[in-house]
Model the fold of this input.
Amino acid sequence: MSGLDNLINISTLERGLQLLGAVTAASTVFKVLSLARLYLSPSSISVNRWKHGNPYALVTGATDGIGFGIAEALAARSFNIILHGRDRNKLEARRATLQKQHPGLRTEILVFDVLKDPYDDIENLISGISHLNITILVNNVGGIPFMPAYINFTEFDSSQIDAVIDINARFLAHFTRYMMPILSKNGPALIMNIGSAAQIGVPGATMYSGTKGFVLSFSEALARECKISKTPVDVLNINLGDVSSKSTPTPVKFGNPLAKDFGRDVIARVGAAIASDRNTVTPHIPHAILFGVLKSLPEFVKVAFMRNIIQDARALHRKIFNLKEE
Ligand SMILES: NC(=O)c1ccc[n+]([C@@H]2O[C@H](COP(=O)([O-])OP(=O)(O)OC[C@H]3O[C@@H](n4cnc5c(N)ncnc54)[C@H](OP(=O)(O)O)[C@@H]3O)[C@@H](O)[C@H]2O)c1
Done:
């Protein structure tokens, strides 16, 4: 190769590296601006996008924790509320609390046990409220519906496998399918699916992680289907780490907000998420930071970190729920 060829090759390599550097820098600036827009600047779209007519928001698993926190935050923004749960007395009590906080608010309740009632009844359940102007659906019901919750996959029996799939994934899919025509008719409408940072794959919570991976992919795919078919329904996966609630009684500290405060974060952030064309959002800033760091760690550090997390979660459950040492 002649000296001239070498020179040309080096300058081509330099130009290539410069281009790569420019693309990387531009993509980093874009990501930083997009995050700043999401978390810091007032959004051109707020939850008011879905507040038209006499709007109702339907929240599943709304008698406790995050579901009730989101219901409270939506009621504070003048949405009428449909509370879903399995316990009629608890639903009536929560309904009374909301109405005391917001006289004039309209509320409905839906009683359906996601683990016991037949899914063929969902259509009938929904037909009782289909005349209402429901513009927001929050698919929140979920979790690990047995104790001890954090067991290894090999310890599961088949009914436990089914229960985790039913409460986190199967009910969500069936309920959403029946709700889609109603939301579409009432558009612009919004579906928020409460996912979990466990979608990353947490040992000791294998089934739960898998179903939250389903919630993420399901939300992203449905969001894109709606964009392509111009169905006026926005769809968002809500990603989160620990939130202090009935089933996750972690002490409130940095990164572990109260369910009520987390509910406010969700409602504050959904408009900006849709404005920036996202299909998934992590509404609580400390969760976003921790999740970002966790994702970028090398695998062996992730394994060590998650081993500690699950040990702590098991110890907390043993203490709070009086479980025996495994
Ligand atoms: N808290 C966290 O740290 C955390 C983290 C990541 C993701 N998440 C997700 O956030 C969502 C809410 O969790 P949470 O911590 O707020 O839970 P929670 O405090 O235990 O509340 C769960 C809600 O679901 C209802 N529910 C439970 N089993 C039901 C059934 N079989 N049929 C109908 N309703 C049922 C409960 O009703 P009862 O009042 O009758 O029990 C309650 O209203 C879940 O999808 C969970 O996976 C939570």
User: Anything to note?
Assistant: The chain has a mean pLDDT of 94. The two ends are 70 Å apart (CA to CA).
